[in-house]
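As a warm-up, study this chain.
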Amino acid sequence: MKAISHGHSDRGETTSPAYTGGCICGAVRFDIRDDPVAMNDCQCRHCQQRSGTGHGSYITFASRRTAKLTGPSKHWEAVGAGGTVKHYVFCADCGAPVYLTFPAMPDLVIVHAAALDDPSRYRPQFVLYAASAQPWDPVAPSVQRFDRMPPAG
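Now compare it with the structure written out below.
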């Protein structure tokens, strides 16, 4: 995965501001000092049901080492449409979704775009599971769409 470049120092470190955010009540927080590798919307039925709308919006980071995740959280596990096991992490106090992880890919951390302190930083690059899109929820019409997951590589 190639990071979305927002600026790097001579040593390859990110020079863009940290991605910070958290839950509604503020008990669960994240501070990620890295550039994301992807920003996407997902229109699978699971994301629709979980979000209560027609899609989920996510920002993926390649290394949990650059992510500081704090606060009293809980998680639940689900198997996605493609067979991937996901751990959805939410605040133990207010119940707001904050981030998710994949046991099969332990380095990745994916945050909910709406959980950002500055959600205007979210810029979707593509839409996943467009075949499940609801006509009442058009998202990111100018970006590439995949009926399911894009091919690997």
